[in-house]
């Protein structure tokens, strides 16, 4: 059980290291995602949207109404945050190819662009 | 024969030297009066003789010269002459009009004649006029051939009465003119008698001279052996030469200042030797030269006789022409009574062979255009009597019309009659009461005519009523109809003017007003119209000031409140009119919004009410009423207002997403908000426009993101 097991333990540990590294990388990745998944400060946005420009947030909201759509560009959707009573306009580019319906709940990854535009970079249906 | 010649010379010398009568050239001989001539009528006779060659001009001159007693002006005389000229087209006796250059005038409108006629109507007949008429009648009676057989005493009495008649004012001195004419004729007749005496004396002298010449011729024949006939022929030849030289036209026979002293050698015999034959005036010298001078003296005497005869004839002609001129002048002056009196005197003064008219034939021919009779003094008398009869008939017609209460007709007949018989008793002694009544009527008619000329129709109607009450033959209904027609035409023109003014066509309105004023200047509606126009102009000025001030301050509410007055004032204001219309439209919409606000508030829909007020601010942002309402409503919709206001401010700052967020917030407060809905649509479109390049160019989107991150 000696030497003869020697290569065997290396072979035995090599896959485990890879899994661990993958887990660590995933954790590291998860750690980065956690920063961009910061909840969207609705009241702060309503009060001073310019202060949030350039930030990236996670917004859980229900589709309220489609305010505008232009083919090849995208659509502007009014969403109701799940935890707030206000309605917020978000821009969803056509490139996201999302199928949206009123009252559906989504988790939006948004960035606050110039002028306070909530630009949806990703969305997941809740 | 010789004694006969001697006695003839003696007798002739004595007569000629003592008589001193001056011969004068006769028209036929063509001589002119010498400076030493003393025949009283010589100069006038010469002038008259010249006038005889140019009778028409002389007649006019005579008429003027004898017109010294006329009270008529030259103008009136011309008018009267025209009136008597029946061939003239200036007078229309049928219609009583005077035509001049195609215009017809009532004879009564002559200024002069009207003045005289009014004066006649105003003045009552005086007692003097009655006495004056009586005097003229007395003169006429004395001169009548029925009374006194034309006794000289009657004529003289009548002549004296002329002086008495001339003292009356009504006579105008015409009787004096006739009396002077009669006196002048008598004086000329006396001169004619004196000339006849002188002529008789000269005839006697001529007979003596003829005897002397015959005697001398006999004596000369016996001495020289010639036959008596030859000697007489020689003497006659010499005498004829003298006579012919006197008749030749260039020789003046002076008898007044020259005397042939043929009587100095009175009683000389025919035995005078031939050597002394040439001594003129020697009584015994009966030589050829003496015989020649005796024959010349005989010829001179005969020339004097002829001259005196011509002078007598000329004096008669002169008197006749003067008298006829006077008669004609009186007739043309319408002094018909004086004309008759003068004609009667003429008849007594001149023989029947002198009754033919030498003057005034042309004038008389106009009264009797169809007659080719010889005109005599009796012709003038006939016309004068006809005129008097016409005047009397006319006055009878006046009285008849007056009694029938046809005073207009009476007035017209009286004017016509007065025109003809102004100086006749029938006219002058017309009853005072009737004259006063006719004068009142005349003045009222004249006043009505003047008022009609002035187009004062109301006064015309008033006078028309008065005149109609005074007489039954005044055509008052026609006058009233004409007045009403004119008034109606004026009113129609004024109505047209008002319509044009209402339509802004002021030039046309002015034209119609002028027409209305032309038809009826005193139309009271014209004053009302002009007052209204002035009031409008005044109001327009004030309104313009008010409007300009309010418009400048965008105080549309004040303008809107006075929109009715301003609309009238700016009816024709091409600048303010459209501005006013825009303000009224704008404020009308505001009022609608305000009404909506009232209704929405009543429904307790404050947000909708607010939006209505906001809608009104687009039209009148400074309207006090609107702002007051908004201020009153604002607390109830403060959040909504805040969101909308924030959205608008973000939008203005081009923060469209933030603006959109606030619009959504406002819409959350009032889901039916139109402002929010419109704002959302507007802003989202802008956002889409902005996002379009990013979608087409992702790098640009990354860049935008980088910019946003910064």
Task: Please render the helix and strand layout as text.
The complex is a heterodimer of chains A (126) and B (710).
Chain A lengths: L6 H30 L5 H6 L8 E15 L3 E8 L6 E6 L11 E8 L5 E8 L1
Parallel strand pairs in A: 3-5
Antiparallel strand pairs in A: 1-2, 1-4, 2-3, 4-5
Chain B lengths: L1 H18 L22 H12 L1 H11 L8 H11 L6 E2 L4 E4 L2 E4 L4 H12 L4 H17 L8 H15 L7 H51 L3 H20 L40 H45 L3 H14 L11 H7 L9 H27 L3 H15 L3 H4 L3 H23 L2 H14 L5 H27 L3 H14 L4 H29 L3 H6 L1 H7 L6 H27 L3 H12 L6 H10 L4 H15 L3 H14 L4 H23 L1 H12 L1
Antiparallel strand pairs in B: 1-2, 2-3
Helix pairs in contact in B: 1-8, 2-3, 2-10, 3-10, 5-16, 6-7, 6-11, 7-8, 8-9, 8-10, 8-11, 9-10, 10-11, 11-13, 13-14, 16-17, 17-18, 18-19, 20-22, 23-24, 24-25, 26-27, 26-28, 27-28, 28-29
The CA-CA distance between the termini of chain B, in Å, is 188 Å
How many DSSP E strands of chain A?
A: 5
Average of the residue pLDDT scores of chain A: 79
Helix content of chain A: 25-40%
Number of helices of chain B: 29
Low-confidence stretches of chain B: 1-90, 98-103, 242-285
Strand content of chain A: 35-45%
Largest sheet properties of chain A: 5 strands, mixed, barrel
Task: Kindly name the structural category of chain B.
Answer: mainly alpha
Along the chain, the helix and strand elements of chain A come as HHEEEEE
The average pLDDT value of chain B, as a whole number, equals: 73
Shape of chain B: rod-shaped
Q: Quick one: which chains have the greatest interface?
A: A-B, 31 and 29 residues
Regarding quaternary structure, what we see is heterodimer
The number of E-state strands of chain B comes to 3
Widest β-sheet, arrangement of strands of chain B: 1-2-3
């Amino acid at each position: 059980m000696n030497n003869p097991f020697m290569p065997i333990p290396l072979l035995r540990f090599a896959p485990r290291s890879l899994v661990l590294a993958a887990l660590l990388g995933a954790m590291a990745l998860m750690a980065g995602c956690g920063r961009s998944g910061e909840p969207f400060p609705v009241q702060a946005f309503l009060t001073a949207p310019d202060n949030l420009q350039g930030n990236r947030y996670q917004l859980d909201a229900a589709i309220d109404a489609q305010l505008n759509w232009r083919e090849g560009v995208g659509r502007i959707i009014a969403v109701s945050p799940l935890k707030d009573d206000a309605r917020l306009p978000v821009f969803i580019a056509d490139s996201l190819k999302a199928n949206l319906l009123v009252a559906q709940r989504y988790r939006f990854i948004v960035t606050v662009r110039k002028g306070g535009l909530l630009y949806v970079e990703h969305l997941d249906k809740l | 024969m010789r004694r006969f010649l001697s006695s003839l010379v003696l007798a002739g010398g004595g007569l000629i030297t003592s008589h001193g009568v001056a011969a004068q050239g006769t028209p036929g001989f063509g001589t002119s009066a010498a400076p030493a001539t003393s025949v009283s009528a010589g100069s006038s006779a010469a002038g008259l003789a010249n006038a005889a060659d140019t009778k028409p001009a002389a007649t006019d001159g005579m008429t003027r010269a004898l017109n010294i007693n006329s009270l008529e002006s030259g103008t009136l005389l011309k008018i009267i002459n025209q009136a008597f000229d029946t061939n003239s087209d200036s007078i229309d006796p049928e219609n009583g009009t005077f035509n001049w250059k195609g215009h017809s005038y009532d004879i009564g409108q002559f200024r002069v004649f009207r003045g005289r006629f009014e004066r006649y109507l105003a003045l009552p007949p005086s007692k003097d006029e009655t006495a004056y008429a009586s005097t003229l009648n007395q003169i006429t009676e004395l001169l009548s051939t029925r009374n006194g057989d034309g006794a000289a005493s009657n004529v003289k009495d009548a002549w004296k009465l002329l002086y008495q008649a001339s003292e009356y004012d009504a006579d105008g001195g015409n009787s004096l003119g006739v009396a002077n004419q009669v006196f002048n004729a008598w004086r000329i007749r006396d001169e004619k008698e004196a000339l006849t005496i002188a002529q008789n004396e000269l005839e006697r002298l001529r007979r003596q001279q003829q005897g002397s010449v015959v005697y001398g011729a006999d004596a000369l024949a016996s001495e020289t052996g010639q036959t008596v006939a030859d000697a007489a022929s020689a003497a006659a030849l010499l005498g004829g030469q003298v006579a012919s030289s006197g008749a030749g036209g260039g020789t003046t026979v002076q008898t007044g200042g020259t005397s042939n002293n043929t009587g100095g050698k009175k009683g000389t015999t025919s035995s005078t030797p031939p050597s002394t034959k040439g001594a003129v005036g020697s009584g015994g010298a009966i030589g050829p030269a003496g015989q020649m001078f005796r024959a010349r003296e005989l010829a001179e005497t005969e020339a004097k006789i002829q001259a005196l005869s011509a002078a007598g004839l000329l004096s008669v002609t002169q008197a006749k022409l003067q008298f006829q001129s006077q008669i004609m002048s009186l007739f043309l002056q319408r002094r018909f009574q004086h004309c008759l009196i003068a004609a009667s005197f003429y008849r007594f003064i001149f023989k029947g062979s002198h009754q033919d008219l030498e003057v005034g034939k042309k004038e008389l021919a106009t009264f009797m255009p169809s007659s080719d009779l010889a005109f005599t003094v009796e012709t003038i008398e006939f016309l004068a009597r006809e005129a008097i009869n016409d005047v009397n008939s006319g006055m009878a017609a006046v009285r008849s019309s007056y009694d029938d209460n046809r005073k207009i007709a009476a007035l017209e007949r009286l004017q016509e009659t007065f025109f003809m018989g102004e100086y006749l008793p029938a006219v002058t002694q017309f009853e005072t009461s009737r004259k006063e009544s006719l004068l009142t009527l005349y003045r009222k008619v004249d006043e009505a005519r003047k008022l009609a000329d002035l187009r004062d129709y109301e006064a015309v109607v008033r006078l028309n009523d008065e005149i109609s009450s005074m007489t039954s033959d005044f055509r008052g209904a026609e006058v009233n109809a004409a007045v009403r027609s004119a008034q109606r035409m004026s009113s129609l023109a004024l109505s047209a003017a008002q319509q044009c003014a209402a339509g802004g066509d002021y030039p046309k309105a002015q034209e119609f007003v002028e027409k209305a004023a032309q038809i009826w200047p005193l139309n009271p509606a014209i004053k009302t119209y002009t007052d209204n126009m002035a009031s409008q102009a005044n109001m327009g000025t004030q309104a313009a000031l008010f409007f300009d001030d309010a418009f400048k301050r965008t105080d549309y509410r004040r303008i809107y409140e006075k929109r009715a007055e301003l609309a009238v004032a700016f009816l024709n204001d091409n600048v303010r009119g459209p501005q006013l219309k825009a303000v009224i439209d704008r404020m009308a919409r505001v009022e609608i919004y305000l009404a909506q606000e009232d209704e929405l508030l009543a429904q307790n829909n404050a947000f909708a009410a607010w939006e209505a007020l906001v809608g009104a601010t687009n039209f009148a942002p400074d309207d006090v009423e609107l702002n007051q309402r908004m201020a009153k409503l604002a607390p109830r919709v403060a959040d909504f207002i805040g969101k909308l206001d924030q959205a608008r401010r973000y939008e203005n700052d081009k923060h469209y997403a933030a603006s959109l967020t606030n619009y959504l917030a406002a819409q959350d407060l009032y889901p039916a908000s139109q402002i929010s809905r419109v704002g959302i649509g507007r802003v989202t479109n802008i956002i889409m426009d902005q996002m379009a390049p990013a979608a087409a160019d992702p790098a640009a989107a990354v860049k935008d993101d980088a910019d946003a991150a910064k």
